[in-house]
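User: quick one
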Amino acid sequence: MNSPLDSRTPSGPLAQKWDKHKFDLKLINPANKRKFDILVVGSGLAGASAAASLAELGYQVKCFCFQDSPRRAHSIAAQGGINAAKNYQNDSDSVYRLFYDTIKGGDFRSREANVYRLAQVSANIIDQCVAQGVPFAREYGGLLANRSFGGAQVSRTFYARGQTGQQLLLGAYQALCRQIAAGTVHMFPRTEMLDLVVIDGHAKGLVVRDLLTGQISSHAGDAVVLATGGYANVFFLSTNAKGCNVTATWRAYKKGAFLANPCYTQIHPTCIPVSGEHQSKLTLMSESLRNDGRVWVPRRKEDVAKPPASIPESDRDYFLERKYPSYGNLAPRDISSRAAKEVCDEGRGVGPGGRGVYLDFSDALQRLGKKVIIERYGNLFDMYERITGENPLLVPMRIYPAAHYTMGGSWVNYDLMSNLPGLFVLGEANFSDHGANRLGASALMQGLADGYFVLPYTIGEYFASAKRARPSPSHPEFKKCEESVQASINRLLAIKGRRTATSLHRELGRLLWEKCGMARNEAGLNEALRRIPELRQEFWSNLSLPGTNGELNQALEYAGRVADFMEFAELLCLDALHRRESCGGHFREEFQTPDGEAKRDDEHFAYVAAWEYQGPNQPPLLHKEPLVYEELHLSTRSYK
Amino acid sequence: MNLTLKIWRQKDATSPGAFVTYEAKEVLADMSFLEMLDVVNEGLLARGEDPIAFDSDCREGICGMCSLVINGVPHGGHRGTATCQLHMRHFKDGQTVNIEPWRARAFPIIKDLVTNRSAFDRIIQAGGFVSVNTGGAPDGNAIPVPKDAAESAMDAAACIGCGACVATCKNASAMLFVAAKVSHLNLLPQGQAEKHRRALSMVRQMDLEGFGNCTVTGACEVVCPKEISLSFIAKMNRDYGVGALREMTHGQ
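Assistant: Done. Structure below.
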């Protein structure tokens, strides 16, 4: 059947699907690969690894990023680690267990075959990164060290101090640089994608803006790869870098590429609490801290203002250990975040505004000593102290959940190709592997799996079977797209209103955080859906934006991204409203168990919701991809 | 607190620049330095004036995109701290704060406080990698790496590529950056095959880019937000020296 939502999942036993599929995929002769031009947008783990690997195979690659260097993509900020089913610790890990943990962690809302493949290639990623010179932590014998992360009872996380993302990204960036030097990758830094060019139903090019000169130009290619990250900045305050945005996938959506499960957003439990109105972003404190830190609040409301050290053990509530004894402080992110919100809602939160819980290292300091703790977490403690002025060796950290990652994204099939042929979407930008909640240390794994080990195999199938010539850059569609991009920039510059993009974005973010954040309900979502169009109207009639297009204009860049968030937010709330169940990071207050856990409705909602754009001010069309579990039984997640 | 800011404004690469004075009112101790500038920019935007252009992205001290010389010191002079992690509690009410871009021939100014640091990318392209293609890597544990070598490589690899070392150096030398990148790979078994070639090509590219020579004043180490040690320069010089000798005797 040729439904737009054919996932193309191979048949056969789960463990053999990927091998069988690789054999079935058509190949491109090495001498012919150089005839294909691939446009890669984004240079984070997924984009850089894909661009480098495709170029090594012989394809001609153009790679675009909005930062001044591909090495600065936001993957760099990942602290804790990367999972891999190596079983180096002899603690009964396996591909199957990583697969199972990931499916369960995602609350049975991911595609089984994709997740199994992810677990399979996880081991190759570690090998590849070690060969590139990524300085992973080592034991004294010289072998690789591991630690534990949330949602797992084995130790399978590889790490490089608290800078794993940076080190993995440098590995991919260095591989990319090698290809740039070889002339197989042409790099375009400080260049932003502003439109996808679709010709005869196939993705065949991009319209980009040179951020230094404002010049709008287009690039024709045989395929387009989006590796443009997630949309957590729709909440204004998030742990994402300031530049992270939804523009690439949103503009592709408006050209026909479905967006799937946008309501699956991850709120990370351990971030530094908000300190004031001026706040521009939130800072994550790595989940790895929960290996040795214990999370608690005072048992009684009256004690919240007391110095933590003066509160005796008997008056403390270690609520994660109490509620989830088998996982304790390492319960998955969605569950830990909601538990923190719950105790703060009860009035037992600590710090300014009562929106914080303690993450306390005093037990670990006594057990392991200061030296070991500093070795493990020194840089995170320094970072905390720089921001808050408090030393976690002396007083417990205060943490609170914050928007961090988005599981939803462009819909892709097993080959990572969108419903728009020729458009591939990798990493956080796609929806495929984490279901309704991502486990810690799995984002790095997925980004690199997609770029190093999946796309290089699957893209050839498209070239071999689609057999479409690359359009000439003089094709009228390019000109048309360039003109429409230029027109929307002109429109932004012509508003000449009184409010800054930041103030409008902050207002949107606050609305979403309240109505579509850690807990959602029908009334709140309906209210958000009423207010978002008003806010969008305010944006388009009252935006203050100085300067011109023909220069470095950071306010203009930002306004364009906020304009897309203003539209995207509506789809996010619509998806959250339609999914009348709770699962993973999507918690609908109407649907919970008596003890306050997420209550899924597998009978009605065991599907991927893929939304199709229907034009401005038209409700989008919902397509459903049923989630078929051949291997596992849908079961209730329990971390108790 | 209230501050007087003297900020370098420059329209574009070719126009002359100058310091312009701004008043920053009601600055809070918990703000980061960049959040303080955000507030100043919000004020400018509200008045329809051109906001101050500066680079930043992650705002948690790891992407290396932020880059200001604050009162004459890159990143403001707090140990191991990038500008985005510098907080206003370190400033006093009524203080005057000078804010300038990185100044070095190899980092031309683009606008206001934004500079072009692509020279660093070209130095990496010259040899800052291990030449392995994707696939076919041996098992991660096939080559043990002694813990001290791994730690030392990690110390070097912590470099965020911000360029503060260049900005503070009286010669605008990039030796600390290049030494960190060379040492990260040259300290590991995986980097041995290309060790000398890497040191030679990266140093030569550095010279081509117009960075100055190193006179080992150690100023770079002081401002480095990742506290990269000067000793990596010695390590690189050794690899470069041996490489140059080999080149003379065997040819490359």
